[in-house]
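>> received
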Amino acid sequence: MDLIFSDIHADIDGLETILKIAFSTEFEGKYGKISRIINLGDLLERGTNPKEVLQKMQDLSKAYPTISVMGNHDEGVLYEKSISGSSYVSIKAHELLSEQDLEFFHQNKDGTFGEQQVIDKQNKLLCVHGGPLDPQKITKDGDDPWLYQKTWQRLSEENNEFYSYYGYHYKASSAFEEGKANLDNFMILCGHQHMEAAIRQTKNEITNIWSFQPITEKIESFVIQKREFEIDKNSNYLFRVGLGGPQGHHNGGFAKPHFGLIQHDPKKIILFGLG
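>> returned
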């Protein structure tokens, strides 16, 4: 069973809360034991404990098979590119990160860091932070090539695709077409926008399958809300995982940690958020 999270944003309390729930005896008794970790990017920025988050990820990657993709804020730190939204305390905490702290992000032969996306062919998963579109195939009318990368792409809320200073906004249909180049009857897993989403493609019909009425339950001392999605082996899916680290919520407020599970037999995805 896979534990999925995204957008921890240097929030060690958020990450520790997710792990405390997912590895609790009560949770394991109800859903099963975690056998793999999937991080969908943005471990860094906005929050104030990047060192502790990266150390925890190093520990997890030694204990469990781990899929991890780059987020735009991870790239911002590693490539020294400025992204708004971090407090003075957060900026200073990130400036103190050493090369050893950043070893979780492996450096590639071309000098880049980490993976833009990971494809798990055995389980038919495409993991990416923002979106799966090939930036080279996008007609560009914006002035910053970085905002077309998979770490910046975002699911469009309009019925069209466009560039903005928030990244390249893509339609679900484009994501599914990109997925079909590598897989069939697959799931795209992404994060980035801090809000959950669930979309199914059956043949050429695309349906929003998000449920606005979650099931509420109590695990240990936590009240959590869940939404379960049975996976039809003849369909494709796009699931967007919510904000993992509340410190990443740039508008303030009372954000809560979110995470997900994939059960493989029978195949089901469950998205959780603290109540």
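>> The radius of gyration is 18 Å.
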